[in-house]
Amino acid sequence: MHQPSKWWTGLIVVSVLWLAAISFKTAGVEDDIAPRAQAAVAAAAPDTAAALKVSVRGRDVFIQGPEFSADQSARLSDAATVNGVRLVDDSYDKLPTPKPYAFRAARNGSQLVLEGGVPTPAVRVAVVNAARSATTGGEVVDRLGYALGAPANFAAIAGHGAVQATKLNGGTFSLADKAYSIAGAATSSDIYEAAIAATRQLPGGAVLANAAILPPEAKPFIWSAVRDAKSVVMSGVVPNDEIRRALEAAAVKAWPGSSVMHQMQIARGAPSGDFNAYTTYALAELGRLSTGRVVISDASYTITGEAPSSAAYDEAMAGVGKLPRGLTLAKADILPPEIKPYRWSADFNGTALSLAGLAPATAVREAMLGSASGQFDGKPIRSEIGIARGAPDGDLAKASASLLKQLARLAQGRAEINETKVSLNGAGLANVTGAAVREELAGALPAPFTIAAVDVRDGPVSPYSFQLQKQDGRVRLSGYVPSDAARRDLVDAATQAFVTETVEDALKLGDGAPKDFVTSLKATFPALARLWSGALTAKDATLSVDALAIYDKSAEQVRKELADAAAGDIKLADVKIGVKPASPPLAVAECQPAFEGLLAKGRIRFGTGSAELSRESLALLDHIVDVAQRCKEAEITIEGHTDNVGDEDSNMDLSKRRAAAVVGYIGEAGIDTARMSSEGYGQTKPVASNDSAEGRAQNRRIEFVVK
After folding, report:
1. 578 sits in which H/E element
2. Mean pLDDT of 328-341
3. Quick one: angle between helices 154-166 and 121-134, nearest 10?
4. What is the pLDDT of residue 167?
5. Residue 259 to residues 254, 285, 369, 388, Cα–Cα distance (Å)
6. DSSP secondary-structure letter at 271?
7. What pLDDT does residue 457 have?
8. Is the pTM of this model over 0.70?
């Protein structure tokens, strides 16, 4: 004790040994208490313990972390006071209680990002694990935080939504309290259907707020329906489930007793327009067929199949022409039914024609109707010709046309085709004999069609009739002529006389024409050509005229010319010629085309080397008078031109006189010529070469210039 340097050293050694003993003893106590305290906390708070930190110092236990419930402190303090614990101390963080309680899962490429609140670590693990199980090969990014106030069944709802979001491109799921919303684009129709189905089977407690799920895009957008005797199968894509269900219901209603199946999927990319109208139309058209297929590819439509009857075929073909707006026809390959024996007939009762039977195609039927219209012009025609397969080899249209031509020569009768055998019976018109009918028919029938029977009674020859009808730019010749040469003669004469009209030949051959019949008719044509409209009728040797002239003086002149034309046995019995009502005025801009249009049809002619108007030009001049009368506001110059034959000065003088003669003719017709002037240019303004007769004829002309 009296040697401090020695006992101080011993004191240090004793202290170190004491501290070491205390440390070893404390560490042993902590190692004993810590696992028991942690296990007790985990047992007392199995859902939240993972977020709590339990530590031990000596025999004191410390608990830290979020406060998940109001009784957490008392409950966990009691649980952590295991044997050997002197004190339990805790420190908890208050958690938010958001309104609404929000959770969100968003797919970004291969990642699924989780954000928002979760009520407990156990729920967090459940949601994250559910997301990871659905994110094959992807990554789940956990940005969740703890929050109080989660709706009931939150784990199931959030897990369900997160899983659905992983299945969609750009998939986004959000939960606001109980409001469940999902959006994104499906990569296949199956995924889309599953995603939509999932919104209808939400976990308990969830309420669907919004489902903005896009189906996959289909290009081309194709829908089809196929029908056979027992079933209807619809496949392809439609833009929504409403159309799909409507189509299925329509098919069930349209084909009761048939098996209706659908393999339709939902997709984006439908063509612009009313796709529902497109598919409804196509399904209705399929209903006209016994077997068939309809396809809508984008906005193009295809129909193929077979019709059960001729009437159904016509309805189906008519339907092809009634596509909904926006739908275009790609192909229509519809087969008519096959029918045997193959028959066709035509019945004429003297006033109307009835067609019945079959044709192999619409074009053939149209040809038959065209033949009927041509042969029975002006007669009512009723057609009940159906379309069917099974026609005999050969040109059925030509065979029917041959029969119709002969039937048109009868006062009444019937023509028939039965397979390749044809027959004709009835009574002939004037100048028609049964022998002639048979001969013409035999010569006109195409192989393999042959005559089975011709029973035609000879028709009367009297009265021998002819009519010239002038109306609306047409001159129609009808009635009888004695020969083809006479027909050509009349048509040629009419074509030369009626320069402002189109001549239509509806003449028929017949014997018994009066003497000088054709000659007398031709003689009337120049006068008739001057008329505005009307008709010349010949019955046997008697002519009558009922017409309208363009102006008063022309009416007087035409009457005289017609009287002079009658010769020989032909007599002019009745002539009624009035004057047409004034035509409406023309705008000045319309006058030049009107004059040029008339002069394009014919030329104003003069006597050789003179200014005397030829008789053949009077018809053209009278129609020019009508235009001049309608162009009262126009300044008009009539120009005369010649070819280069003769003296240049003489040609200049001749052109001036000819132009003045035209002005004079117009003035004599009663037209005020104060706005008209005449000019002559001789040979100075050719429009063609004078080296040919044709060119010189073009240069000899009168032109109207409207200013």
Report:
1. strand 571-579
2. 95
3. 20
4. 93
5. 11, 18, 42, 29
6. P
7. 86
8. no
